[in-house]
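tool=predict chain=A
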Amino acid sequence: MAQKTKIGWTDCTSNPIVGCTPVSDGCKNCYALRMARRLKGTGLLRYQGVVGCNGHWNGRIAIVPAELAKLRRMGKPRRIFLGSMSDLFHNSVPPGFLHDVFATIGACPQHEFTILTKRMGMAWHVLKGWLPLANLLIGPSIENERTADERMPPAIALAMKGWRIYVSNEPALGLVRWARYGLKHIAGLVCGGETGPGARPMHPAWARDARDACLRAGVPFFFKKWGGHVPYQDNGPLPEHCSYVGIDGTVRLGDWEADTDACMGRLLRGEKPNRLLDGVLWDGCPEREEGTK
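tool=predict ok
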């Protein structure tokens, strides 16, 4: 059965494909790679050939058809994140197996599936001639404006063909001028900071801009969490665990700041991630399409 998850916008994850290849700056501290290393260490067969001896993705993928069979047997309706340990539009995924994945989604109308990809151009190429699935949210994973410029146009093009587009701005690593991309055509947007070792801080302005663009467009906004750093509220001397992050993403140490800098404190051991943006819990999720259970 699919694995339970702490991801707030979904109930569980399923991985019919594992393994990946880094494609942009958002891949630098990949959470899936950290988990894959641990799973490889436990001896789990599917991860042996996708994580190299240097501890990085080696560009190979492993196909796990049994995961599709499990999904077809799951009767209780769930929200399922499909492909948390891979990118389903990796160029090594056999077209026939990708067809099997989408056939499984279509055969399980009781569930709502979400697929996120950093290869939105490939998704457009594959799906532009297919009939949209009412129980699928699909969309780009975007970390900054450069990747938004690359991935949002094919996402919006799919939206115009009837696909339900869900945008992930996680990890947020730079300001994105979301109003440029026609957010009224998307089903929802989730924003969050980077977590784990080496996490880069998120400037509050990046999250606020995403929220405000969604509010203007009438689009559900979900703020997942600040990540490994949270805004520091005290106006006193800068603690050692804090730093300043510029609107351009530049991180500066020391007790000084420019007008647009934000003081961010590293999340200390034992502290729980903060999900409040300007004191508000943003939990907006796309509504289910009519005709799905």
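The longest helix spans residues 145-160. The longest strand covers residues 112-117.
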